[in-house]
Each structure stands twice: as structure tokens, then as C-alpha cells.
Amino acid sequence: MNTGFSRNLIAGCVLGAFALTTGPVETDKGASIVSGAAHAAGGVVDDPTGTVPDRYVYYPGTEALSEGEVRVIACGTGMPDSRRGQASACFLFDFGNGEKLFFDLGTGAMRNVNSLMIPSEYLTKVFISHLHTDHWGDLASLWAGGWTAGRPVPLEVWGPSGREPDMGTAYAIDGFLRAYNWDYQTRAYKITPVPGGITVNEFDYRGENAVIYEENGVTIRSWPAIHSLDGPVSFSLEWNDLKFVFSSDTYPNTWWNEYARDADLAIHECFVAVPTMVAKMGFTPESALLVGTQIHTAPEAFGKVMTEIEPRMAVAYHFFKDFDTTAEVYSRIRTTYDGPLSLAEDFMVWNITEDEIRVRMAVTEEATWSPPLTGEAQPPGGDADREAFSENSGVALEDMTYSDFISGGTWDGVEEALRGVYKEAEEALGQEFPYPGDE
Ligand SMILES: [Zn+2]
Ligand SMILES: [Zn+2]
Fold first, then answer.
1. What is the pLDDT of residues 401-430, one digit of tens each?
2. Cα–ligand 1 centroid distance for 151 (angstroms)
3. Which of 52, 56, 316, 341 has the fewest CB atoms lying closer than 10 Å?
């Protein structure tokens, strides 16, 4: 996914960033490193069977947050065409008090989210900055996958209005549920209909630092972003004297300069450099200049934006981060900004407290399963559930099963083999499981 070159360069960026704020520290190994995060890297093993207590990587599911700590995980940092090594925009916020929420859920992001193995019942809140698919395209995966994995409640979505009703988030979610009606109905009366709902909180995109969420000590505000058409917004999130800001996609603007000031972590889009768009994406210079500098924030402009608001840590995302693009984006940012900087890639993790910002990469497993349910697993709904669903939804009972035409194609040549599976379950569990149709 990444060459050693790009990884090393980033380590350099982060170290340089810390050095600016904390100053270099001499260690007993004689190397000049920095205090805080980087200093902890590696831990100490002083006997041959010892373990390393403190590594420079994050292993999901192994670290409890302290009470005043926030962990931010980049689950998508790339472009609209998500790729195997980089999903589209998604940042997961994980708070010391247990609150968890997403800023954007772009295409491909759920593959990354699922590798963190967080029980689905805790992943229910999604803040959508704008309705480009690279910022909400994987809602389908969270919606259906989390349902299958045992989320007991509906998803809750926050997103901006548009200039007209059909350009807003409520319209989009209504359309989403219509588009996935077949999926909804096939799960609703086989499992339970409740988690298939989505609660929409649409807010005015013109709000200027307006509060859109206040729960569990977390306050989220929005202000307009300037991107493509009216509608997109940027967010701030405040908790425990910490402040996080997320630009979404935007041309640099005065709202951001005013409301994002002094953030602890400032995540802002930073687009692919214009010459790269021409060379690698086949853009004409005219369209590369338009998209790369006017619709999005160019690296040089990203630097200006961060110099203006002076965050504790600036985070650049929304470019394909490769061995041959990282240095280019970095050097262009450095023409206008010399403060703390992370060039985001998928699975970059920031642990933030009042005293420290620790930047690491998560080490994840590709072959993950859904985490086990935290509550009791339920058997499939019976006739009573089906009847209740029919009554509430208006779907006729006879439409909640196969037509005679389709069931007429059933091959009974497998029945004997499948009866063996039922018998095996009965013997293993000491319980009767009648074969379908035998009751
Ligand atoms: Zn966009
Ligand atoms: Zn985007």
C-alpha cells in the first residue's frame, strides 16, 4: 500500500511538527528525538522473554481512552474514486466517555471501519458534510452491515439543507431508503425492522457557527463551506476543552478562518497538486486549475489556511498519498505553513489530550468478522413478527414470501443433505429444530 519512502517521509513530518512545539530531546541512545508521542515508540525490552509494553503503532481494541482523551481515526482520506489502499473521506471520533461518531462516511470507508472491530451498536451517529458520494457513499454499508451485525437501533444522520428541498440531506435519505427498499424488506421481517430506520436531522447550511448537536458533553457546530454549489458545510466539535474542526470540501473561506481558529486538531481538505492532476488523471490544464484551485483547496492554499488559524495539529486529506505525490504535496504546503502537520492516510490515528497529541498508524487485520453482539442474540422473527410488520408497513403478507413461480423452482435434491445439518444441530445442542415444512 505504501512504500517505505512515503512512510518515512511522514514520520519525518510528524517529528518535525512536534519538534516545533516541544523542542528536541536528547536520549541516552544519543539520537535527537522529540518528547511525547515519538519518545514512547518502541518501549524497552530488558530480558529475552520480555514483551514490548508501548509500541509506536495502535492496535485496535487494545487501548482504553483516558477520561479526557479523544482518539481520531482516519478511515478514509482519498479521492472520489476510492481504491484498495485508500477510501474516500471518513474520520471516526472516539471519546473518553464512550461517545463515538463519524464525520463523513465516504465510499470504501466501511472496509476500514470494520477492520477496527467496534461493535455495530456503538456506530450509530453520522455527520455528513455534503452529499458528494465520496463523503457519504458508504452509508449503505454501515446501514445494512451494522443491521446484520446486530445494531439494535436506527442510524442517526445529521446533514445540511440545500438551496431547494431536493438538494438537502432529508431528501437524500428519503431517496436512499427508497433505493434500498428491496434490501430493507428482505431484512425487516427476517430479523427486526427497527435498525433499518434512519433518523434524519437536517440543519440549515447557512448557519454560522450554529449548534447542531449537543449530547454527552459534545457540542457540534456548522458553518458554510464553499464547494461546487450551496449546501456543503464545515464542522467544529468541542468536548472537555478540546476543539476539533473538519472542513469537508471547500475553497478557503472567512467562516473557517473565524470559527476554526485555535483548534487542537484541524482536518482540512488538501487536493492533489495541479501538475499531478494533468500528468496522472489526464485533466486539461484548464480543468485541473479549476478543480484543483477553485473547487478544492490547493496545497499552497491549505498552508495559508493553517497559518491563519494556527491549530495544535493540522491534518491534510483528500489526495492520493503515494510515494511520488507525498513529497510534492508536502513541499507545496511548506511554502506557506511551517506549523505541526500530518499528511493523512487511511488508518492514521491521533490521540489528543490537553497535554499531548500522539500520532500513530493503526495496525489492522484484513480478515475481520463483525464483533460479537454485546446483547443477547435473537432467533429469526416468527409469524407474529411478520404479521406486525405487514400491518405497520402495508406490505401484504403474501408479498412477504416467494411467489409460487419462484418457489416452484426449488430443487429438493439437497433436502436430505440439509436435514443432516438440522440433525447435527439437534445432537450438538440437545434441542429440537424442526425442518421447515415439517411442523
Ligand atoms: Zn465534494
Ligand atoms: Zn470530496
1. 899 999 999 999 999 999 999 999 999 999
2. 29
3. 52
What is the chain's alpha carbon radius of gyration, rounded to the nearest angstrom?
A: 25
Q: Helix, strand or coil for residue 330?
A: helix
To the question of pTM greater than 0.85 for the whole model, the response is: yes
Q: Give the residue from 76, 179, 85 showing the smallest Cα distance to 135.
A: 76
Contacts of 72 (CB under 8 A, 6+ apart): 91, 92, 93, 94, 244, 265, 267, 349, 350, 352
User: What is the β-pairing status of strands 125-127 and 100-103?
Assistant: parallel
Q: Which ligand is nearest to the CA of 78?
A: 2
192 Cα to the center of ligand 2, angstroms: 34
Mean pLDDT value across residues 107-131: 96
Does residue 38 carry a pLDDT above 70?
Answer: no
What is the per-residue pLDDT for 51? 77
Domains and CATH numbers, the chain: 4-29+55-362 (3.60.15.10), 403-439 (no CATH)
Could you give the strand order of the β-sheet that contains 233-239, starting from the edge strand earlier in sequence? 210-215, 218-224, 233-239, 242-246, 265-269, 313-317, 341-343
